[in-house]
Structures are given as structure tokens and as C-alpha cells.
Amino acid sequence: MGSWSESRGQNRTLQILGSAAREEYGVLAVVCYNIEHLTAVVRAAESKRSPLILLLFPSTVTQLPTLVWAAAAAVKSATVPMSLHLDHAQDEAQIREVAATLPFDSIMVDMSHHDHGDNLAKTKVLADLCHEHGIAVEAESGRINGGEDGIADTGSLEALFTTPEEVEEFIAADVDLLAPSIGNIHGDYGPSGPQLDYQRLADVNAQIAGRVGMALHGTNDFTPEIMKRCIQSGTVKLNVNKLVLECWNTYLREHVHEPLMKLMDGGMAVLQDEVERWMDICGSSGKA
Ligand SMILES: [Zn+2]
């Protein structure tokens, strides 16, 4: 494989997000925990002719490695642009192993549990390593509070919004995608809902000036209006978890006595509908 500057144009995640940036829409990056989630979100993308990023957590890769290969097969056989992304990879050894052995298109290298200097230094080393394997890298600047499945909760650390200095530091650490902290949190928001600093988001986007793509984490409780405002401010990758998956849980709870196949089919149908609805909101429908 040649250098990253040559291979970066071939990277699926960056191609998808590059098109989104040019045409000013957002692409859903949907967390999948099982084969039904994967099937439903892929069906939504095909049906809406929308690009899609499939998100897996490191814990899923450990517990259910088969899902990685199933997702990679889905990416390969899809008739719309699709890529496979590893979210919040916090274990350096796992990142090295994944980059060398698994077919991910992009990895979020999350070293935010280290102090700032170590975070940047480790991010740069791991970004260069991922690039050698043709894998794009995302990092989080500032600190996004809260815990997600299997992800260390940094909530005891002081919440920090992304600063202009950090934007430059992470770009200098060779990342391809930046996830800023603008009041977004992992997990559920309080009763007043998300209180985001849209001005800071727009400022970060202006400062980035197309050098990297912008991702947003912590979309639980987002309304369509909040989602659209984040996209208008330059976000191209929208990580969604509970925002779309909750309907699957609800359906299963309410239909638990139905035969298994019927339960799975029904759950996939409601999840597909919900993902399609958010693809419309993000403006990615019809863009494939
Ligand atoms: Zn996240």
C-alpha cells in the first residue's frame, strides 16, 4: 500500500463524508449491536438510496466478532455507499490488532482518558498506524461526558468544550475526522434537552476549513430541528445509537409473546422506518 496521501482518496468513510460536505447533508453513523440491527439499517439505506456508516463498539467486536464480518459483507454488497467504522476504540492493543486484521474503513481513536499531552501523542502514533492500513481516523477534541456501552465514563473529569488550539492540535496529530465537544454528552440529556453551543460548532467548522470532516457524538434526545442545525453548522457524520435503536427495544418489549421470527421481522421493520425517517431529516436520502 502506498502512502496515506495517495490512499486516503480511496477510503470509503472519507469518500462518503466528502460528498456530504460538498452537498451539505449529514450521514447517519448507526450503532449496530446484532445482525437484526445491521439488516434493518442496511435495508433503510438501500430503500432510501442513502449513504450510511455502520458503527460497531469495541465491546461488540470482542463479544461478537462475526458481526464485523457480516457488516463488512454488507458494505461490500451494498448498492449505496457504505462504510464500517469502529467507535470509541480506547485500547491501544486492540486498535493495533483491529487495524492489522479486521476490515474497518475508519476507527475513532479515543485516547481522551489520558491527559492532554499523552492523548495527542498516542493519537498521532495510532493515526499513523491506522493510515498504514488504509484506515481513516477520528478523534474527539475537548471532552464529551458520559458513558456508553463498554466505554470508560469520563464524567468524573471536568467537561471541556473544544477550543481553537485543540482543533489545530488534533489536525496536527493527523486525524481525518474531528468530533468536537460543544455541550453534547453521551447518554441521555436532562429535562431541558440538549443545550448545544451552535456558535462554537460553526466556529470549529470554519476553522477546520475542510481540512478534516466533522463528526457529532451524543445525539440521544435530538429533535429533527437540533439535528438539522448541527448539519447546517458543518457536521457531516452523525453518530446515532438510542435515538434510532430505542424503537427496536420498545417493539420487542410490547410484542415479546409473539413467535420469534415474527418478533424479529416486526422489530426490523420499525427500526428500518425510524432510520429512514432520520435519513430524510439529515438530507442523505436520494444522495447515493
Ligand atoms: Zn461517542
UniProtKB/TrEMBL annotation:
Record field: catalytic activity: beta-D-fructose 1,6-bisphosphate = D-glyceraldehyde 3-phosphate + dihydroxyacetone phosphate
Cofactor binding note of this UniProt entry: Binds 2 Zn(2+) ions per subunit. One is catalytic and the other provides a structural contribution.
An annotated GO BP: glycolytic process
Active site residues according to the UniProt entry: D87 (proton donor)
CDD domains xref list: TBP_aldolase_IIB
Keywords of this entry: Glycolysis, Lyase, Metal-binding, Zinc
Residues that bind Zn(2+) 2: D110, E140
Gene Ontology terms for molecular function: fructose-bisphosphate aldolase activity; zinc ion binding
Organism superkingdom: Eukaryota
Binding annotation for Zn(2+) 1: H88, H186, H217
InterPro entries according to UniProt: Aldolase_TIM, Class_II_FBP_aldolase, FBA_II
One Pfam family of this chain: F_bP_aldolase
Enzyme Commission code(s) on record: 4.1.2.13
Protein purpose: Catalyzes the aldol condensation of dihydroxyacetone phosphate (DHAP or glycerone-phosphate) with glyceraldehyde 3-phosphate (G3P) to form fructose 1,6-bisphosphate (FBP) in gluconeogenesis and the reverse reaction in glycolysis.
Family from the record: Belongs to the class II fructose-bisphosphate aldolase family.
Protein name, per record: Fructose-bisphosphate aldolase
